[in-house]
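User: quick one, fold this
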Amino acid sequence: MKAMPLIIAAVVSSGPSLAQTFQCQFTSECFETEACAESAYDMTVRLEGDIARLSAVDGDFDGTAAPLGDGNLIRFASGFGPAMLTIHGDAARFSTHGVADAMMVNYSGTCREVE
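Assistant:
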């Protein structure tokens, strides 16, 4: 995995605003136009209403969540740049974009709700 500041996102449900926790595991990482490589990047996302907290090896980060159609979409911006996490069923895509270097990293994997 490329070393870089973590940009975070989270997931949201269009149901009642109860606390939910998701465990996400990303098995593929694509840096810019390079070939994709295997990844072992994991994160936990906790939702309470429209507030989301993401925890990963890089640290804990807060974000805001919003639903999109039948899936879930979270947008987040930090000093590094914007990021987005999209979840549809168990499938998940996480995309980060750097504004200083105009770079992007995309991850593919799964997010599952945990008790």
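User: anything notable?
Assistant: Strands lie at 20-31, 37-48, 51-56, 59-68, 71-77, 82-88, 91-98, 103-114.
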